[in-house]
Sequence to fold (394 residues):
Amino acid sequence: MGKIAQSTIKYLIEADFTAEGLVEKPDIIGAVFGQTEGLLGQDLDLRELQKSGRIGRIDVDLREKEGKTEGTIYIPSSLDSSETALIAAAVETIERIGPCEAKIKLRDVKDIREVKREYVVDRAKEILQKLMKEQPDADALAETIKGSVRTSEIIEYHGIECGPDAIDAGEVILVEGRADVANLLKNGIRNVAAVGGTSASKSILEVAKGKKVTVFLDGDRGGDLILKKLSRLLRIDSVVRAPDGKEVEELTDKEIFKALRQKVPFSEAIRKRGRVHRIEEQPEQSIEHKQDLNSNVKEKIKDILDKMIGTRAAYVFNKRMKMIEKLPLTQFTEENAALKNAEIVLIDGSITKEIADIADKLEIEYLIASSKDKEFETKKTKIMSVEDLDRSDV
Fold:
């Protein structure tokens, strides 16, 4: 249908036609004007109505089919509903188009205003949904304001960026950089100071002097290097690690406080990291032929599960205990190609029946997590928790 430019159009008459031969658009429009002329009187003559703008430009869609012509006639109207109905009925009386016999059948008379109203309502719903999604609630606004205020409280002391309580508090939490300080401040932790990465200088000694020192490190090799650097400068009481692969600056409030609850003495942190490194440097441990996990593999698995806390991920290993993939739990599906050759899969969180069923269908040998909802019946997969690993008969 051609574009209707008139802004006053109220209705659109749509009529389907069939002509017993080949006709063109001018033939059809001529038939509409010619064969309705005088039928409804002078007041409803289509030519006069079009001149006055009460009938819009008549348009036609047509197509040829097996020697015949078919299509649809469109007549825009700004007349009232009764007058428009008369025009629509008059169009059905046309019997010839050009030299050919023809038949015209009214398809519809559309109320353009109703169509516009439907559009307006649907569009208004979309706009409202967008506004509701983007509109923050009062709690979110309050937290944003509090976070901004807390972040603005960063001070500088002898070249070290700190929270306002870092100087006078009895304990100080040392982090890597300003972004880490800002994130902890945003979550209400004020006794925090940045050591400036691996280039930490002796000025940090003045901030830490006479205090209990906790070091809060990223969950990567960079965190190990900073711990090593700091241990040469000062006495460290406790160590906190972000989840494996995460940085302190990107942790959520829940992840921050969970990590702090799991802090360990410095001596234990050194032993733990050293044990992990030694296991990773050992030759890959095979679990072929469904043999039991040996003690080294168990320790490695437990260490990895500790570092996975908060990731909501699945770590996928082959039969040589070599990592194949890290993937979100939402991607733990039968269709995921990364799971096709999996031998051991470690889960952050609790194993559910759905996860157990998928692992069994994929014939994964071991599915291990911190905990599991219950005991599962599986044909191929051995479902285990950390407690199961600690049992002597596993």
In short: The CA atoms of residues 195 and 204 lie 7 Å apart. DSSP finds 13 helices and 17 strands in the chain. The longest helix spans residues 112-134. The domain at 143-273 is CATH 3.40.1360.10 (Dna Topoisomerase Vi A Subunit; Chain: A, domain 2).
